[in-house]
Design goal:
6 strands; alpha+beta; globular; 153 residues; GRX_PICOT-like; two-stranded antiparallel sheet; 58% helix; metal ion binding; four-stranded mixed β-sheet; Thioredoxin-like_sf
């Protein structure tokens, strides 16, 4: 019985040591490389968020999804809650501490607050134009203005 208990203890210690060693690795060994993140930025608009667009798991991610939806933007979304290495890696890659993160044409734009501000002041429409994307809000504005001009004629 004592021998069996000793084997169980040594087995437990060994398993703990392996577990501990994996999670105590230097961050540089656990984080995804820049190339693993860069390939995710291949599309014009990419967001790293908590959850998925159909089911955001935080209010900030939901706000980003709603803004992009208003603009009619097609984008790639990556759920950082499914991959802790991606979650930390994207923060290191962009040098930005929070999620969600928005990229346009591979360039980091910002998080929720910055995207909301850009939406309010019209800068988001301009950034989307630079990427070759016409905002649905701009299209609505142009069509409503042409309707006003026709009624004045």
């Amino acid at each position: 019985m004592a021998a069996r208990a000793a084997r169980q203890q040594s087995g437990s210690v060994k398993r703990f040591t392996i577990y501990h060693d994996i999670f105590m690795m230097p961050n540089s060994l656990r984080k995804p490389s820049a190339s693993k993140i860069s390939w995710r930025l291949k599309n014009k608009v990419v967001i790293f968020m908590k959850g998925i667009p159909e089911e955001p798991r935080c209010g900030f991610s939901n706000a980003v999804v709603q803004v992009l939806r208003m603009h009619g933007v097609t984008y790639d979304a990556h759920d950082v809650l499914k991959d802790e290495e991606l979650r930390q890696g994207i923060k290191d890659f962009s040098n930005w501490p929070t999620i969600p993160q928005v990229f346009i044409n591979g360039d980091f734009v910002g998080g929720c607050d910055i995207l909301l501000e850009m939406h309010k002041n019209g800068e988001l429409i301009e950034e989307l134009k630079k990427a070759g994307i016409t905002s649905a809000l701009l299209e609505k504005e142009e069509s409503s203005q042409s309707g006003v001009n026709k009624s004045k004629e």
